[in-house]
Design a protein that fits this description.
mainly beta; OB fold (Dihydrolipoamide Acetyltransferase, E2P); six-stranded mixed sheet; five-stranded mixed sheet; 11 strands; CheW-lke_dom; globular; 143 residues; Chemotaxis protein CheW; CheW
Length: 143
């Protein structure tokens, strides 16, 4: 069985494998990056390591967060040994659903989200969308 770190975005519950999470940070001061894509929230200094902060709402095509609403940074490890911060609305629990609880994303999952979700898991009163963090952090560059 695998454990998943859960978080919410615009009423949706997402999960990423705990093994891919480096740490979770409450609201952080970000340095904006001029001319960066809207998905890039900015940069944060994580004990001397400069980490790109990705606005996951923008990446998933969800409406923007209220400017006064708190945010949480889920720092995930990248394949090259670095880290990227995913800006989310709220952190959830660590869950350990059985392997057979997962299935393919249904058609009711919005198209903008479905491309970055590998599987879904039915929870009590919610549907956890398993985010492909590696694909989510690949921000397309405008040409």
């Amino acid at each position: 069985m695998s454990q998943y770190c859960t978080f919410s975005l615009d009423g949706h519950v997402f999960g990423v494998p705990v093994s891919s999470v480096q740490e979770v940070l409450r609201s952080q001061d970000l340095t904006t990056v001029p001319l960066a894509p809207t998905e890039i929230a900015g940069l944060l200094n994580l004990r001397g390591q400069i980490v790109t902060s990705l606005e996951l709402r923008a990446r998933l095509g969800l409406p923007p967060r209220d400017p006064d609403a708190p945010a949480v940074n889920v720092v995930v490890k990248t394949a090259d040994g670095g880290a990227v911060s995913l800006v989310v609305d709220e952190i959830g629990d660590v869950l350990e659903p059985s392997r057979d609880a997962f299935e393919a994303p249904p058609d009711t999952v919005p198209v903008s989200i479905r491309g970055l979700v590998t599987r879904v898991c039915k929870l009590d009163g919610a549907l956890m969308l398993l985010l492909d963090a590696a694909r989510a952090v690949e921000v397309p560059v405008a040409s």
